[in-house]
Inverse folding.
C-alpha cells in the first residue's frame, strides 16, 4: 500500500514538473517561439479558445512569428487577444495573416522575465510540497507498523527533495537562457 502511495507521489510530482516546464516555455527569451502564445486565449463563438487551435503559428527569420488563422474572419479577434494578453508584443494585421516582430529584450525586461522564472518555480515547489503533504496523510492512514510508516514518510521526503532540486536546476537553465544576450 505504501509503495502505491509512493508511485502516485512520483507520478504527480512529475506532472508538476511538466506543468512548470510548460509555464517556462511561455516566457520570452528574445527569440521568437510559437509557445510564447500558449497562454493567449481568443473569444471564438463565445468561448475562450487557445490561438494554436485557431491558427497555424510559425517562426520566420528567427525574430518574427507568423500567425495564419484557419478562418480569415478571426484575424481581428486573434489580434485583440494578443493585445489583451499583455505580452509586450505588437501584432501587425494585413487582413490574412498576423505578423509579430519579437524585439530583442532590454536588460530590464530580461531581469523581469528572470523573476517570472522563479515565480513559476515557487508555484511548482508549492505543488510538490502539497503532494508530499497529501501522501504523508495517506501514509498515516495505512495500517502498518510505525517503522513502515516512518520509512514511507522518509521516502516521500527524499522524493520531494529530488523534485525541488530538479525545479531549481530547470529554473537556473532558463534564467541563464533569458539573461544571455
Amino acid at each position: 500500500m505504501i509503495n502505491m502511495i509512493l508511485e502516485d507521489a512520483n507520478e504527480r510530482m512529475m506532472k508538476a514538473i511538466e506543468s512548470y516546464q510548460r509555464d517556462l516555455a511561455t516566457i520570452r527569451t528574445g527569440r521568437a517561439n510559437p509557445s510564447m502564445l500558449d497562454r493567449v486565449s481568443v473569444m471564438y463563438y463565445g468561448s475562450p479558445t487557445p490561438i494554436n487551435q485557431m491558427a497555424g503559428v510559425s517562426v520566420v527569420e528567427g525574430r518574427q512569428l507568423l500567425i495564419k488563422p484557419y478562418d480569415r474572419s478571426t484575424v481581428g479577434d486573434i489580434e485583440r487577444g494578443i493585445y489583451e494578453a499583455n505580452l509586450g508584443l505588437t501584432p501587425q494585421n494585413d487582413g490574412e495573416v498576423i505578423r509579430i516582430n519579437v524585439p530583442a529584450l532590454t536588460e530590464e525586461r530580461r531581469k523581469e522575465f528572470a523573476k517570472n522564472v522563479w515565480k513559476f518555480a515557487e508555484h511548482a515547489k508549492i505543488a510538490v510540497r502539497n503532494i508530499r503533504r497529501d501522501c504523508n496523510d495517506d501514509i498515516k492512514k495505512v495500517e502498518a507498523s510505525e517503522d513502515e510508516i516512518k520509512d514511507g514518510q522518509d521516502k516521500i521526503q527524499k522524493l520531494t527533495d529530488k523534485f525541488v532540486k530538479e525545479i531549481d536546476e530547470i529554473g537556473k537553465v532558463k534564467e541563464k537562457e533569458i539573461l544571455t544576450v
In short: The two ends are 51 Å apart (CA to CA).
